[in-house]
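From the thread on structure requests for the teaching lab: each student submitted one protein with a one-line request. Submission from student K.M.:

"Model Signal recognition particle receptor FtsY from Actinomadura montaniterrae, tokens only."
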Amino acid sequence: MEYVIVIVALCAVALIVGGVTLLRRPVRRRRPPVPPAERPPAEQHGATAVDEAEAAAPTIERAPPTEAAPPPPTVEIEQPPPGAGRLVRLRARLARSQSAFGKTLLGLLSRDTLDDDAWEEIEDTLITADMGAAVARQVTDDLRTRVQVLGTRSPEEVRALLKEELVKQIGADLDRSLRTEPHGTRPAVLMVVGVNGTGKTTTCGKLGRVLVGDGNTVLLGAADTFRAAAADQLETWGSRVGAQVVRKDEGADPASVAFDAVKQGIDTKVDVVIIDTAGRLHTKTGLMDELGKVKRVVEKQAEVDEVLLVLDATTGQNGMQQARVFAEVVNITGVVLTKLDGTAKGGIVVQVQRELGVPVKLVGLGEGPDDLAPFEPEAFVDAILGD
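Reply posted by the TA:
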């Protein structure tokens, strides 16, 4: 019992001593909270040292996610106008270049007195228009005879006489149609030949537009493999009207390109295949070998319906020299005269037909895509005479 009393007494003493100690401890005042704007960076929102390091690190801009390349733009297929009536629509361009020629002739024929000097001037005017000396002399003689028979010459009569004579010399009765009808399951094949620089490849593209405008399906063969730009040009022309294009690498065999073009034309059942050939006038022998090979290879699959020679109307006698070389090399069936709106020498139409014995079938009258037109003698003469 004594032990219990002693333990209780000790506990009581311990409680008294602890209470006195607590009463003597000073009371600590609580400081007001610091506003967020005034806190040091490490204290804001409970930031740690790691947060401070991340805040001090430079900001790295991340590239946006790579997007897939947009699809190439769709080329809108154009519907060119038909070939019929194109020359009438483009007659104003002819009139601008040929009107001086026609007005000079009409003025000379309308003189009160037509003596030998006047007729000589008429002949000279025809010669300077690239009609050729022999043709100019014949036209002058025929006109002189008719004027003497008629006696009186009103402006209307003079104009009618001149128109009749020019149309006769140009050849209104010549067949100027293009043979573009397919042969059963085989397409019509047109070879286009000529010297580079005459507008040969561009003519192929424009001719394709004429044929598409007339309701044909067309394939273009880029057999001028000596110029990569020629194949590129054809692809541009073809994409506009939905025409297929067959091409190979630069320097490939032209005959193989022509062969593949005709084969694909047969497989895809197109109406017309147009083959653009090389225009190098290196030597007559080389040219003959090359064009002859292209034609022979093509004819293993389909008949060549047209061989069209492209001539630059502004080159005059130089163009005629080129025409003679090609005529000796390959059987030309028709002529395409380009840049006829850029020369006053419309008489070249008559001269080239006389020299080659084939008709002018198409004429180029500008740089627009639809400026190639089937040649119509009467519309051409009307433009010359300012009708």
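TA comment: The CA atoms of residues 128 and 300 lie 46 Å apart. Residues 2-24 form the longest helix (23 residues).
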